């Protein structure tokens, strides 16, 4: 089956480009002697995660318990959860995960330390090994994380908490998606590595062993991998790249492996076209982390003057420059602004190679709502 | 099981409010002698669609073939497809749908008429009844649709096309979501009804019978239902309402039946809180149709001063006024900006009544990507 025979809208992944992206990032880590732990929220797909592991990743980073559990089911044996996911009903899920994989948790407050210790303290008392914990450090993203100078305080709390073992520090420089040039990206990368290295120094000065000094984002990866004192990088988006990454200079259009295919449904005016791809395929992200970085809602491949001006749920309105012709029935390929949110909107991605459909890639780690009884029954 | 025992993040629907919303819209239609055909892209759920049918809806309006097929599977026998969904692979799906339900299509170009006639012309020649077609009229939304004065031209094309029967006209006033006051909404409603009534007049003057004069959006429904010459209203969002609808004066917060529940994970600064609800639960919509109407990414119920300032994929950063306290572990209820895109992000909604969990509501008509072979095998 050929690419052109796929019904639209559909989200496809060029497998050659995907594999090249995976290998390039693995090589960057290898050549710089740092571990690679991909953030898999980007694709939520065991198929792609396993490709990353085969290329040399040490494990994966997950944003949700659904993702962590799905990776465990796929046989990945080393999973870090990026956020302090406390709250009702997490207890049993965390215990099951820890029994199944090498689990690492992340905290940025005394309350989270207490919550996780309440889960794993009793297990440790019963003879199970403690669970590794990373301290989340704020490197300028102003989201989660403690200041580097507060790392030792929290480190002491982790160290003292039954069932937990202090393993290191980590940060995600979310503010990199507010950059408007590659130079600014390099500056953010310096903040990123500076913050965790400073936090690690504080912890070591306080007498703690710090095994892991982890950073990560796709745009900063090439700087962070080379920085002194970093042990682990955790980029995610690089498997697909997207319009935002090209705006940040982290990738070229030909590195973007994920595309949404659409069909022109209408040409209501000489300068507009309506396609069957809307925010329920592209998402309405203009940037990551709520930031606006790009024009319109994606890049139309081969039509540089065309702007995806407005998205409704299942339609988008394109504006065409005077010399660009798109007829009703024509097909378009779109590089979304944000591939991570686009991939989350479909049940499967379609893997293609040189224009031929090769396989489907199920996106199985999407949010799965369940009542806690179901969760228990699922044990 | 109680609401407070649900794991977060989770999307819940208050069934009392849902049923009240469904009944109120049904009564509006009944009292004004117009048919109600709800747009079901809002919920993509057979359970809710059947409640709408039981309350008196004549059928449903679908935005995608996946939605139309899922409604047919659920036993709903009258389905209109809102957009001219032409393109590869639609032929067999449309034929199967037409064999199963009273199907109505929508067109706004000669090309779409030809494409649909190519599907249904041969079937009609073989003795099957023609398929009803509505002409989409632009009432100011500048998306799909012909100008009212061009309706007769397109009407003649439909009339002449084998396999198709001209059934009427329809419009969706998407630009209502650009309004900033209830007065402006009333103005858009006048444009909406004016455009289709004018188009119907042109068609009748050209000698055609016009059975259906359809309009629809939730904010304009109460005006459109009372307008002269309208036969059908097609609101969708009203089952849930959301922050955008409250900004437009179409609903109050207590009419908003869909809420996303989250937990405070971190209090990184005195004036910020981080919750476990991000754009993969709320969407990053600031308005419908790409318009920005509201502050932040949703309304935090009971915390009027709190703003959902930034959303990442699985987290949001709230800013708190000085006197608002939210502690780590506290739970929040969020009315999303746009309930239609929020509901599309989960596999099930959790139906609650007076704080008690009553049932799950599967969201089964979400986008389902498949290779055409699968589609054929599925016949």
Descriptive report:
Two copies of one chain form a homodimer. With 379 residues, the first copy, chain A, is α/β, with parallel strands linked by helices. Chain A has two domains: 15-239, Alanine racemase (TIM Barrel, Alpha-Beta Barrel), CATH 3.20.20.10; 250-346, D-serine dehydratase-like domain (Lyase, Ornithine Decarboxylase, Chain A, domain 1), CATH 2.40.37. The first copy, chain A, is 32% helix and 23% strand. The first copy, chain A, contains twelve helices and 17 strands. Chain A has helices at 15-31, 46-54, 65-73, 90-100, 110-125, 151-160, 182-205, 221-224, 243-247, 279-282, 339-343, 372-377, and strands at residues 10-14, 35-36, 60-62, 78-81, 102-107, 131-136, 164-170, 212-215, 232-233, 258-269, 272-275, 298-300, 307-311, 316-319, 331-336, 348-353, 356-362. In chain A, the strands form two sheets. In chain A, strands 1, 10, 11, 12, 13, 14, 15, 16 and 17 form a nine-stranded mixed beta sheet that branches. An eight-stranded parallel beta sheet of chain A has the order 2-9-8-7-6-5-4-3. In chain A, helix 4 (90-100) packs across helix 5. The longest helix of chain A is centred in the middle third of the chain and has 24 residues, at 182-205. Chain A is elongated. The model of chain A is unreliable at 374-379 (pLDDT under 50).
Layout of SSEs?
Two copies of one chain form a homodimer.
Chain A: E1 10-14, H1 15-31, E2 35-36, H2 46-54, E3 60-62, H3 65-73, E4 78-81, H4 90-100, E5 102-107, H5 110-125, E6 131-136, H6 151-160, E7 164-170, H7 182-205, E8 212-215, H8 221-224, E9 232-233, H9 243-247, E10 258-269, E11 272-275, H10 279-282, E12 298-300, E13 307-311, E14 316-319, E15 331-336, H11 339-343, E16 348-353, E17 356-362, H12 372-377
Parallel strand pairs in A: 1-16, 2-9, 3-4, 4-5, 5-6, 6-7, 7-8, 8-9
Antiparallel strand pairs in A: 1-10, 10-11, 10-15, 11-14, 12-15, 13-14, 16-17
Helix pairs in contact in A: 3-4, 4-5
């Amino acid at each position: 089956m050929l690419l052109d025979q796929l019904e639209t809208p559909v989200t496809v992944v060029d497998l050659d480009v995907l594999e090249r992206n995976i290998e390039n990032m693995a090589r960057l880590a290898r050549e710089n002697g740092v571990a690679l732990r991909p953030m898999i929220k980007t694709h939520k797909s065991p198929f792609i995660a396993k490709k990353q592991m085969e290329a040399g990743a040490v494990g994966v980073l997950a944003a949700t318990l659904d993702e962590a559990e799905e990776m465990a089911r796929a046989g990945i044996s080393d999973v870090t959860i990026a956020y302090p996911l406390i709250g009702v009903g997490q207890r049993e899920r965390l215990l099951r995960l820890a029994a199944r994989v090498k689990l690492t948790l992340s905290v940025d407050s005394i309350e989270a330390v207490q919550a996780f210790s309440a889960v794993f303290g009793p297990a440790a008392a019963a003879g199970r090994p403690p669970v590794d914990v990373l301290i989340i450090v704020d490197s300028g993203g102003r989201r989660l994380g403690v200041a580097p100078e507060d790392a030792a305080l929290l480190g002491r709390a982790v160290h003292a908490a039954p069932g937990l073992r202090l393993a290191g520090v980590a940060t995600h420089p979310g503010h990199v998606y507010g950059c408007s040039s590659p130079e600014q990206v390099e500056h953010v990368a310096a903040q990123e590595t500076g913050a965790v290295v400073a936090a690690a120094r504080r912890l070591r000065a306080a007498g703690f062993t710090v095994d892991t000094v982890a950073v990560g984002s796709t745009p900063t990866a090439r700087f962070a991998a080379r920085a002194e004192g970093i042990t682990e990088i955790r980029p995610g988006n690089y498997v697909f790249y997207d319009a935002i990454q090209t705006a940040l200079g982290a990738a070229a259009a030909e590195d973007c492996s994920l595309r949404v295919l659409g069909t022109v449904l209408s040409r209501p005016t000489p300068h507009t076209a309506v396609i069957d791809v809307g925010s329920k395929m592209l998402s309405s992200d203009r940037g990551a982390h709520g930031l606006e970085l790009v024009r319109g809602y994606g890049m139309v491949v081969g039509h540089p003057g065309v702007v995806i001006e407005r998205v409704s749920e299942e339609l988008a309105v394109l504006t065409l420059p005077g010399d660009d012709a798109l007829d009703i029935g024509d097909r378009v390929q779109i590089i979304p602004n944000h591939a991570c949110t686009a991939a989350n909107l479909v049940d499967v991605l379609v893997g293609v190679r040189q224009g031929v459909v090769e396989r489907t890639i199920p996106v199985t780690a999407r949010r799965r709502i369940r009542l806690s009884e179901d969760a228990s029954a699922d044990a």
